[in-house]
Write a structure and sequence with these properties.
globular, two-stranded antiparallel ribbon, two-stranded parallel sheet, alpha+beta, single chain, 75 residues
C-alpha cells in the first residue's frame, strides 16, 4: 500500500506541510510528539507500549484501532 501512496504523494513539501517516509515504526516514532494509529497492521501491533515512551519526545498516542490496553499504555 505504501508504494501506491508514494506515487500519489511523493516525499517532500506538499502545500503547507511535508511528507517523509520511514523504513519502520521505530524510525517513525523517534522524537515524535504524537502518534495516530489508524491501522491494525502486524508491524504496528508488534510495537510494545514501552517503546512509545522510550522513542517519542512526547509519548502521546491516539489509538484509533484499540490495539492497546489503556492501563498498559499509562504505565
Amino acid at each position: 500500500g505504501m508504494e501506491n501512496f508514494k506515487r500519489k504523494f511523493p516525499e517532500g513539501r506538499i502545500g503547507q506541510g511535508s511528507i517523509r517516509y520511514m523504513k519502520n515504526a521505530g524510525e517513525a516514532l523517534l522524537d515524535a510528539n504524537v502518534c495516530f494509529i489508524f491501522t491494525e497492521w502486524s508491524e504496528i501491533k508488534a510495537v510494545r507500549p514501552e517503546t512509545y515512551k522510550k522513542l517519542m519526545k512526547t509519548p502521546l498516542v491516539y489509538d484509533g484501532r484499540n490495539l492497546y490496553d489503556v492501563g498498559e499504555m499509562k504505565k
